[in-house]
Amino acid sequence: MMDIALARHWVEALAAAVDAHQERLTQLDSAIGDADHGANMHRGLTAVLAAQTSYRPESVGQLLVEVGTTLISSVGGASGPLYGTAFRATGQALPAADPDAAELLTALRAGLDAVRELGAAAPGDKTMVDAFLPALDAFEEELRAGGDLAAAAARAAVAAEEGARATVPLQARKGRASYLGPRSIGHQDPGATSTALLFGALAEAAAAR
Ligand code: ADP
Ligand code: MG
Q: Which residue's alpha carbon is at the smallest distance from atom 19 of ligand 1?
């Protein structure tokens, strides 16, 4: 089950991970983009942490919607609206009561659907979708096998990292990296890499229970 305290921990762990990996995200984006992904994510999560102190959410859903709204308003790059939409759609799909792991999975699927609707990226286009989708499939598999939220999130984090690494040989078909055409091949997608941090943070927060 996820309650507001766990959701806050998730967001804080994500902010810490983005802080620790900011350089790496920037390096990846300098190879196939405009070298701002680390800065974009850092600006967004810093704004989220600052706003957290005045959030008074009555549900996990409300908290995630607020996180998404803050990301959209604080990040200029493509990733701000995309992650912001993911958090907002996930939050909107959650029930008013604390969600169990299956309800969280359903809501995260709604979050991914919203990203795909906004960005029109298909799996294999070398975007955050290539980490997000395998993460949710692994999460679902673990729940089906009887695992709890912590186990499912741990599996999702591993799958997201594998998904991010699997973007290396792909040619980008969406976002700035697509302008490079075949020259985008051979580099890991920055957004897929930050999505792995998102699921790593969820696993960290869930494991702390
Ligand atoms: P910008 O591309 O505006 O500089 P960022 O550098 O912060 O924004 O984010 C780049 C990341 O955003 C990419 O690595 C990719 O994962 C993701 N991205 C870009 N366009 C799309 C899209 N249309 N759909 C999904 N993800 C996308
Ligand atoms: Mg960029």
A: 175
* Architecture (CATH level 2) of domain 4-207: Alpha Horseshoe (1.25)
Ligand 1, CB cutoff 6 Å, lining residues:
29, 33-34, 36-37, 40, 77-79, 82, 115, 119-121, 127-129, 174-176, 189-192
Between the alpha carbon of residue 137 and those of residues 29, 35, 62, 208, the distances in Å are: 26, 30, 25, 23
The model's pLDDT over 52-97, given as tens digits with 9 standing for 90+, comes to: 999 999 999 999 999 999 999 999 899 999 999 999 999 999 999 9
In three-state secondary structure terms, 55 is: coil
Distance CA 129, CA 96 (A): 27
pTM for this one?
A: 0.98
Q: How far is the CA of 127 from the centre of ligand 1 (A)?
A: 7
Q: Ligand 2 mean position to 158 CA, how many Å? A: 24
Specify burial of residue 175 (Cβ count, 10 A radius: 0-12, 13-18, 19+).
buried
Question: What's the gap in Å between 175 CA and the centre of ligand 1?
Answer: 5
